[in-house]
Design goal:
The chain has 251 residues and is α/β, with parallel strands linked by helices. 45% of the residues lie in helices and 15% in strands. The structure holds NADPH dihydro-nicotinamide-adenine-dinucleotide phosphate.
Length: 251
Amino acid sequence: MSDVKKTALVTGASRGIGFVVAGKLAETGYNLAICGTRQETIDQAAEQIRGLDGVDSGVEIIARAVDVSDREQIQSFVQETAKHFGRLDVLVNNAGITRDNISMRMKAEEWDAVIDTNLTAVFNAMQAALRPMMRARGGRIINISSVVAGMGNPGQLNYCASKGGVEAMTRSLAREIGSRGITVNAVAPGFIATDMTADLGEDAHAQLTGQIPLGRLGQPEDIAAAVCFLASDAAGYITGQVLHVNGGMHM
Ligand code: NDP
């Protein structure tokens, strides 16, 4: 990478997949803008990333408490990032939540929270990123979906709808802005060992791994590798795609 560092923005980078994605991008040489819901934990994440062996001391990180479900907050954060670094090369929409319930009992708040955080926030972030990316005639947008977007999952109607929507938006925006040199792709993780899946009991864990040909849950690093590939020059001719990283549990 040249002296002028590229910039990547990763939402939901305080822990889990987003944290590892941000760390790998920093190791690749990107300046970073990262957010989570709390200033203290996102500051700690930034500190840990700065301390990684592979991260050059010249890498700059801005870390903010941002509620991605708030249009004003996420769009301001994207704008602040582009202004601060003078460019926005990669946007990774990773922040996500679950509020599981069977459909008959699903509350309006559970539906709204998941749609606002996992779907509407992705639109708002992409919309704000378009201006700096179009000005630069290039950019990479990478949205984190889920294997359940394609499979369905009982008790996750809200979550499956949000991730299915993310994949559909990914294809639509890819068609809309391909001529501007901007690629838009999604990564669909299977079950990955993070806080989101930490509550699985032993039985559910065993049942789940039985359905995964590779016989294990994925690690955040498995997803980070896919994101870094889609962000790289090598992926310049890939757009509108969903890259599945799920140990073969869905084919
Ligand atoms: P975690 O629960 O481990 O982490 C979620 C991250 O998102 C945290 O950094 C959290 O911040 C942030 N976040 C949540 N809500 C908001 C919000 N309103 N504004 C800003 N940040 C927010 O999740 P994972 O790492 O497991 O998941 C990351 C992505 O991968 C999600 O989109 C998820 O749907 C997807 N995914 C995960 C799978 C898995 O098996 N783990 C499988 C398939 C997809 P804070 O720490 O402040 O709460």
